[in-house]
Amino acid sequence: xxxxxxxxxxxxxxxxxxxxxxxxxxxxxxxTCGVNLKSNKKTLELKENxxxxxxxxxxxxxxxLKISEDKIQKEINFIRDNRDKIFGIGEVxxxxxxxxxxxxxxxxKKNFEKFVKLAIELNKILVVHSRDAExxxxxxxEKFDYKKIVISxxxxxxxxx
Length: 161
Hints:
With 161 residues, the chain is of the alpha/beta class. 43% of the residues lie in helices and 23% in strands.
């Protein structure tokens, strides 16, 4: 049986070669996700050095709040230019754990929408981060009618009522 890890961050690890070797031995396919401009470039370099891994490029929701709309668009263009090298768009999404202000949450949604539309345009898997915003994330994604989505919820709370 082959396993697929769709939410790793090899660019943040020290001994990448050993991690990849261990995963290969255990029949685990790694999909590593970029989270910001620097991370995306490093993740792309990892793909060039380790063709057996798959990569996603995107901007983490809280990182998207720290950069200008122009820089987000440039990163989207960078991702578009590298479409043939990537498995998907990610890690993108919504986060209400660290940033709870309604204004910033609206900006997160605006930025997230850009990446959802990019995934649709490129016909790529969308790897979604959701922390303390699971219901909001599902509701947001339902309006796109896109089926290639993997959601990685953190601290997911199931409503049992």
